[in-house]
């Protein structure tokens, strides 16, 4: 790979920008609350727009509320290389989730602007709307952009039981026009810097994670049937207690996940009829498994189904989001950028979904992670050391330069 000219992110400015944005929607519990389309979210986005306006870049806002800016390139006819993430948060969330990706992209474009440099490709920055799962599922804005929203989604309930349509109207958007956010032309590539929200990087003492793929998620409903009866008069040996039958299955989920090197979780159980004086007659277990490899997920699924069969329990798959691989060329650019800057990196999978996963429908994509202290996220305790934030931005900016040379090179 040929060496590219370098790009030096202004680290102090990035750290200051993170602090400034964190003050918008700062809540009494020490966290940040900028729920999608709320007053605070709009204020945060407005501040980001002003920062881009200072670089002579005008915002384009689509009908789902995604903001984007395009810094022009030197070569005609090339699609932009896009960078981005989100500035909305969960209620009482942290300062880095999403914000780091948007502000690092801003930092990269700011360098180009201040040095009066043009890359071959235009550089697009996207501040996605409603990434957090507050609007009937996560990644609302990027799904709108990719055209993968359910047709009736605006009628769904948002986090506060108002409809998604109500929230869109709060932000001055027309719910009937959300589908117009769909893009047909994707960027040449999409890169997202995000906090890891896990502990791997911290444990390995590495500042950068190069994401090779985003885990697939399969969810199941397992219904275990027993026999509901009086909890006082039915002798222990006469019982068919559905919860007692279901309990070992929960441990099986853990064992199967560990055996296959994936993650598996029973996150919800309904115990019916659900009364202290009635032996449980039915238990509905909601579980999910996540992993990068479809074959491994298949094997784990078969085993879980087999175990359910031993209990004569019904085993039904309720959803299946396939894993998304990062684009190999983009991964190569990220690795080269880490090596260029002398940062240790780990190749890893993302266990959580992100806007990049939705952008995979439109463009080659990849992500990079920086460490999360104690693996904590969606919490006021979310923290990434300043030097790691700057390292992430530096790798993002350098990878942008590499990609600018690699893509559409006609060679
Ligand atoms: Zn996020």
TrEMBL record:
One of its GO terms (molecular function) is hydrolase activity, acting on carbon-nitrogen (but not peptide) bonds, in linear amidines. Its cofactor is Zn(2+). Allantoate binds at residues 219, 277, 290. Binds 2 Zn(2+) ions per subunit. Keywords: Hydrolase, Metal-binding, Zinc. Zn(2+) 1 binds at residues 86, 97, 194. The keyword Metal-binding applies. It comes from the Bacteria. Zn(2+) 2 binds at residues 97, 132, 378. Belongs to the peptidase M20 family. This is Zn-dependent hydrolase. It comes from Caldilineaceae bacterium SB0662_bin_9.
